[in-house]
Design brief:
The chain is built from seven helices and no strands. The protein has helices at residues 5-9, 12-36, 44-49, 51-68, 72-100, 123-130, 148-170. Helix 4 runs antiparallel to helix 5. It is elongated and about 55 Å long.
Length: 174
């Protein structure tokens, strides 16, 4: 018997998975908006923290699709993988926040404000050669005392929680 959209919408796993997918999309769109509209340049660690979103969003979508097809154990595994990814991302955010607060040293690739290229053989190369890479140890800005990295920790922990709720609800008897 086919499952209808209304039946899926009433299931806890589908609700938590959908909410987590929506929230992950909102967070990465906000980060991209701050970069491309607000003019905040991400450092190397900021860019690395986006990988969890770039990987997690399609996996969450896939988990919802396989859940709706009735493969609840596979969906639970996919939700769990996403949860682990966001937990690791939260750890990376804590590390980055510590670098910003000067609690420890950041990676060597984040310390120089280096210009990536020195040749000017084309428009793109010219732009790259004149654009400095932001330092990882200097927060671009703070809101309520937290930098973007600090807010990413909170977002990643919330997304981890949502993905775990969806994973455990996926294997509960219906």
């Amino acid at each position: 018997m086919a499952t209808t959209t209304a039946q899926l919408a009433g299931r806890t796993a589908y609700q938590w998975g959908g909410l987590t997918l929506f929230a992950a999309c909102a967070v990465i769109l906000a980060a991209l908006g701050f970069e491309h509209i607000g003019g905040y340049e991400p450092c190397a660690l900021c860019l690395e923290q986006r990988y969890a979103y770039y990987a997690g969003i399609p996996v969450l979508f896939g988990a919802l699709a396989v859940y709706s097809a009735g493969a609840t154990r596979l969906a639970a595994a996919l939700f769990f993988i996403v949860a682990v990814g966001f937990l690791l991302n939260a750890g990376l955010g804590v590390y980055h926040s510590g670098v910003e607060w000067k609690l420890w040293e950041g990676p060597a690739t984040c310390s120089g404000g280096l210009k990536p290229l020195s040749g000017a053989s084309g428009s793109l190369l010219k732009d790259l050669s004149t654009k400095a890479i932001p330092l990882c140890g200097e927060a671009q800005g703070r809101f309520l005392g937290l930098s973007f990295a600090g807010w990413n920790v909170i977002a990643s922990m919330g997304l981890m929680f949502g993905a775990l709720k969806a994973a455990f609800a996926s294997v509960e008897p219906r």
